[in-house]
Structure formats: structure tokens, C-alpha cells
Amino acid sequence: FWNSYNIVKVKDVLPVDTYIPGCPPRPEAILRAFMELREKNKEKLRYHEEDDQRDSSGGET
């Protein structure tokens, strides 16, 4: 059924940041996915903070 015409994958509708393997997923897999997501968000936050510092210091835009 996974390749049926009436099945839509989540990744085709919403952006997916991380995957959790398993059916049902093991608790360790869920924790690992949350840790990966946390690291990705930290990197995004650092990138935006650097942009804000550049803008406030009068750097070129």
C-alpha cells in the first residue's frame, strides 16, 4: 500500500527536518531525532544571530 495512488507521503506535503525510523519507533530513535533537530535549530539560530550582529554593526547588506 505504500506506493498506492491514494497514499501521500508527509515529505511531499510538509518539509521534513529529520526522520525517525521504525514502526513503531523505539524510544532511542525518537530521542536521537530530537537531538538532531535541536542541533539543526542551534545552527540556524547561530546563523541568524551573526546576520543580526552584522546588520547592527553597520555592515553592508
Automatic annotation (TrEMBL):
It holds the Pfam family Oxidored_q6. Residues 8-37 form the NADH:ubiquinone oxidoreductase-like 20kDa subunit domain. InterPro entries: NADH_UbQ_OxRdtase-like_20kDa. This is NADH:ubiquinone oxidoreductase-like 20kDa subunit domain-containing protein. The lineage of its organism: Archaea, Methanobacteriati, Methanobacteriota, candidate division MSBL1. One of its GO terms (molecular function) is iron-sulfur cluster binding.
